[in-house]
Amino acid sequence: MLEDQLLQVAKKFGSPVYVYDSERIAMQYNRLAKAFSNVSQLKINYAVKALSNLAILKLLKTLGAGLDTVSIQEVKLGLAAGFTPQDIMYTPNGVSLEEIEAAAKLGVQINIDNLSILEQFGTKHPQTPVCIRINPHVMAGGNTNISVGHIDSKFGISIHQIPHLLRIVENTQMTINGLHMHTGSDILDIDVFLYASEILFETAKNFKALTFLDFGSGFKVPYHAGDAETNIEALGKKLTKRFNAFCKAYGKELTLTFEPGKFLVSEAGFFLTKVNVVKQTTSTVFAQVDSGFNHLIRPMLYGAQHDIVNISNPNGRERFYSVVGYICETDTFANNRRITEIAEDDILAFKNAGAYCFSMASNYNSRYRPAEVLWHGGEAKLIRTQETFEDLLKNQVEIDI
Fold it and tell me: Where substrate is bound, by residue (predicted)?
């Protein structure tokens, strides 16, 4: 999106506000689909946890996506957005058997990642096809909080436990129709991804009724100029060749499935804030904005770097600023960052704000969660209103004190 379009949004809807560009989402979806166009059956399941607004889900549905969900609530959001149960994968971690059974009743694809629940579910529901999430013990990810395929991870069934897994399947006579892996986010080395894929292929030989293999996602997107990203096109060529060869050896065409979240929506998103105060101290110039890590926690939680552009003065002289929020503790978006000269009331745009920004927002300090806007068809469309004081009180119960 252009600076003047973003300024239009800020003027119309105020700040802070999240803005998403539908064209960018479609471009990323089509890029991934094209990279794997030589696979006979491809399924792209959008990871709802990245950004769960119904308008975004409906947009992705029009592009042909399915959904990857991690909670019963996300399953219900997908159904509310018009997805069929057959287009929804449910991949929880550490949830109760009751929640998994509730999802199964809704007809979605179940994906189980531990032996205990697998045995319990298989014993009670042997006729329900199940996907199994394996842990390939391959380390990938740009931060320890988003690296999920290593040996100490809580995710997946270890490849060293395959004999136990096979015994459960044999004893329960349950049907395993898919295998799944996810190594982590911000994958750069496609050879590491391909190595993990070989483990999935090898494991798949133990199961005769598979209809799909889910390779997860975690593709890295660039966060600033010159930043590296996953070479999707190179991965597409190499993995397609290997996948097609496996299907031929397996004896039937399987569906190749991915579950991208950040890859599809991150670069489409912008977070707009207004500068409340420019504060000069003895060593630093602070730009203090009308937001905080209650709205964009990634810099504080993951050490993530989001490009920040002063869209009120895009061509001004560059100076160094530390951009900080209004939360009553350390609340830093950027330290000593080069940004065009900032004045009070300027609008700053944080890039790559489509994934894990609103979805991780909170009411910390009793602040409202902002509005969300979709730039679609050349106009800004409100897709979530800003919260109000009544929203803060909504679920509280008054008692006599």
Answer: 298, 302, 329, 356
What is the reported pTM? 0.94
Q: Could you tell me if residue 292 is inside a domain?
A: yes
In terms of Cβ atoms closer than 10 Å to its own Cβ (0-12, 13-18, 19+), residue 288 is buried
Q: What is the number of structural domains in the chain?
A: 2
* From 131, 247, 328, 357, the catalytic residue: 328
218 among annotated binding-site residues = yes
Annotated binding residue 369? no
226 annotated to a ligand binding site: no
Going from the C-alpha of 253 to that of each of 191, 245, 247, 312, 338, the distances in angstroms are 24, 10, 5, 53, 52
Q: Are residues 226 and 139 in the same domain?
A: yes
Rounded Cα distance between 331 and 319, Å, is 21
pLDDT in tens, 120-179: 999 999 999 999 999 988 865 444 444 444 456 788 999 999 999 999 999 999 999 999
Active site residue 247: no
**Bridge-partner residues for 350, per DSSP?**
271, 308
Is 269 annotated to bind a ligand? Reply is no
- Unique residue bearing structure tokens 């539908």: 22
Bond preceding residue 16 cis, omega within 30 of 0: yes
* pLDDT score, position 143: 42
Where does a domain end: 264, 281, 298? 264
pLDDT confidence bin for 188, thresholds 50/70/90? confident
What are 249-259's pLDDT values in tens digits?
Answer: 999 999 999 99
Domain span including residue 290: 269-387
What CATH number is associated with residue 279? 2.40.37.10
